[in-house]
Amino acid sequence: MENKEILKRAIKKAVKNGYSAYFNNLKDGSLDERSIPAIIDSVIGDNDEYTLIFSHYFAKAFWPSISCYHNGDEMRHTASDCGQPAWRYYQHKMLDEVQEGRDPIKYLEKFL
Known about the structure:
Largest sheet: 2 strands, antiparallel
Shape: globular
Order of helices and strands: HHHHEEHHH
Mean pLDDT: 75
Helix content: 40-55%
Low-confidence stretches: 76-80
Number of domains: 1
Distance between the termini: 11 Å
């Protein structure tokens, strides 16, 4: 899947989970699926996709679950067992992708 499609699906998932903090220009602070094409164009047009995907607000909405996973298998069932919130765990995994020379947007694809 191409990065633009991954971002579109990732933003759609995050919006469904309540994500809106990144887009402060909205009067009521809410987003809906009709907003997604404009968001994608704005984020990609400004080369801002990495700022978006590494924001805590986005990560909290994209990974709202409190379960941690390891190698695709559920490992622990509570945020305290993970030692950190699940969204932070996955965000660190995404950083590992960057450090290993891989595209972190492709990491998001695993969760769509």
